[in-house]
Amino acid sequence: MAQTHSKRILLGVTGGIAAYKAAELTRLLVKAGHTVQVVMTEAATHFVGPATFQALSGKPVLTKLWDGDSGMAHIDLSRDADVILIAPASANFIAKLAHGLADDLLSTLCLARACPLTVAPAMNKQMWDNPATQRNLAQLRQDGVALFDPASGAQACGEVGMGRMQEAETLLIELEALFQPKCLAGQRVLVTAGPTYEAIDPVRGITNLSSGKMGYAIARAAWEAGAEVVLISGPTALALPPHVRAIHITSAQEMQAAVLREIKPMSIFISVAAVADYRVAQTAKQKLKKTDTAPTLTLTPNPDILAQVAALPKPPFCVGFAAETEKLAAHAQAKRARKNIPLIVANRAQDALGQDESELILIDSHGAHDLPRAKKLVLARQVIAHISDLL
After folding, report:
1. What is the per-residue pLDDT for 2?
2. Domain range for residue 128?
3. Active-site residue flag, 318
4. Same domain, 194 and 87
5. pTM of this prediction?
6. Distant-in-sequence, close-in-space partners of 326: CB < 8 Å, separation ≥ 6
């Protein structure tokens, strides 16, 4: 099953204002079911007190080389961890890692580790751009350390530029991705998600209740599996998964144009979007005024994007989604045959639209495979694993 089970995270916090984000990261990691042991440098305690991290993690915070029962915390801690994450990682601490220095508990346990090391840099833009820092970062990459590169933006010093540590939510996603099997490495995946909106006039339209949550989860799971992912999304309020290129559209015709423009280099096409079946034949240029007589709207069919892609001379591996209200398996099987695709994913519309959880039936040439109710990200990882098996 392709999902993230509870992991033992050793969170190292070094001196920098971004230490406040590490407190939020601790909360999110614990909320996600992971065990967190915090180790702080002496400089870090000047920004956020150890008591804060102890309250959030439920574990005593270690700060000194001689902390721990055995006096060998630098050995014991890394042996018990699945991964070490340094967040924030200051320029000074990155230099220590690059040159193998070990003059405090955190740097010593990194040197003596027996688990993967990940680093989330945070510093002033000049420190980030300094050739010495860039050399040190290059050395860490060469040594196999995973770097969660910072973002560009306003900094505590008042300047604007590269060096802001990623937000806690993004770091959680990046960290959990490390534990996912890279079963789609080298693949290029195009995903559609969300609803479409078909205008009636400048202020009214036809749409549906799709939130886009499953499509966004599929895009994230495909990226976690090592694929290069493009997400074509209708209107949603969702945050984009990291490292996914997004194309935002509104109508079904816009989605069709975007899909056909992007599809050529793709090896997998996953059509999750709830595309409106019909649009208004002629959109009013001005707002329709309310009258005693209800207006008559003439509808015309929207393009069948999935069927169009599946009918290409050299189509990618096509996956469809079927949201049904009754006879789920039968309707989905008929849709799979009609569109001539290798896999269709079926769910009950009334139980899935807008929800954080769902249950699915995967239907392929081998039969039907039930996926019990779970969080949509968990299901998305299972769908991606099944696609990998079929490929």
Report:
1. 40
2. 8-177
3. no
4. no
5. 0.90
6. none
